[in-house]
């Protein structure tokens, strides 16, 4: 296969997008785990990067290459790649740039403000920020639903779980409801016969961190490829080959250990 076929053009374009996503993941991790409270400009930078990725992905040339690549003699792996490229293009092409940028900014502002609002018990202020995130998410859902048909929920669900629908979820949960309650009752009955040793916190951050490190060593975590950071709330993330580091929380040992 020559280097200038439509498929190869697509491969180079999506490789470029992958590198931008790699950079966004690192910057996002730093914002969540290391950024001081006054570092709100990071959200604006990430929103700008998101717009750039959207522009690259929705370029008319990408749509043309996708059409032309379908006429090529591709092997099974290349056909699978092309199918996923087409899916990403179709999802992105539904949205104009402005809501992409607005949603990214709103999410960053909401998370950043939460760091001071949560310890201050300022749920009213948090609700104001969250309200804008919800509004923009509903706007996106409506745009996608209008284009593909179906409900707004299914339109968003398809992004995170391709081809899943609320009808299929109803069927899955109906099956769970048929046997899970009895299993939970058995577990509760068994636990009632055992003595509970409840940990009494709060616990020093340094000790939580050491507990997390010990758990990570037992699980075989590659410390040459990742690290453990401390953040405002527990989460795990990163990019392949880079920092896939879970944080410790200052509140509970359980949350810190689970994040590790």
UniProtKB/TrEMBL annotation:
Gene3D superfamilies: 1.10.1370.30. Pfam families: Peptidase_M32 (PF02074). It comes from the Bacteria. InterPro entries: Peptidase_M32_Taq. GO terms for biological process: proteolysis. PROSITE patterns: PEPTIDASE_M32. One of its GO terms (molecular function) is metallocarboxypeptidase activity. This is Carboxypeptidase Taq. It comes from Klebsiella pneumoniae. The lineage of its organism: Bacteria, Pseudomonadati, Pseudomonadota, Gammaproteobacteria, Enterobacterales.
């Amino acid at each position: 296969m020559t280097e200038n076929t439509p498929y190869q053009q697509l491969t180079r374009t999506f490789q470029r997008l992958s590198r931008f996503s790699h950079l966004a993941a690192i910057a996002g991790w730093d914002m969540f785990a290391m950024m001081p409270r006054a570092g709100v400009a990071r959200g604006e930078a990430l929103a700008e990067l998101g717009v750039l990725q959207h522009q690259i992905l929705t370029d008319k040339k990408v749509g043309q290459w996708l059409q032309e690549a379908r006429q090529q003699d591709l092997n099974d792996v290349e056909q699978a790649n092309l199918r996923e490229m087409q899916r990403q293009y179709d999802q992105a092409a539904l949205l104009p740039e402005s809501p992409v940028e607005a949603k990214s900014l709103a999410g960053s502002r909401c998370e950043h403000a939460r760091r001071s609002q949560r310890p201050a018990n300022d749920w009213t202020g948090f609700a104001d920020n969250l309200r804008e995130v919800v509004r923009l998410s509903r706007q996106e859902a409506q745009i996608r639903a209008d284009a593909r048909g179906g409900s707004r929920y299914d339109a968003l669900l398809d992004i995170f779980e391709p081809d899943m629908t609320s009808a299929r979820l109803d069927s899955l949960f109906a099956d769970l409801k048929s046997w899970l309650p009895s299993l939970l009752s058995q577990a509760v009955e068994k636990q009632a016969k055992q003595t509970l040793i409840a940990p009494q916190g709060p616990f020093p951050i340094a000790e939580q961190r050491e507990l997390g490190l010990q758990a990570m060593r037992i699980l075989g975590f590659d410390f040459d490829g990742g690290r453990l950071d401390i953040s405002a709330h527990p989460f795990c993330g990163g990019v392949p080959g880079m920092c896939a580091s879970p944080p410790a929380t200052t509140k509970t040992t359980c949350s810190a250990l689970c994040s590790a």
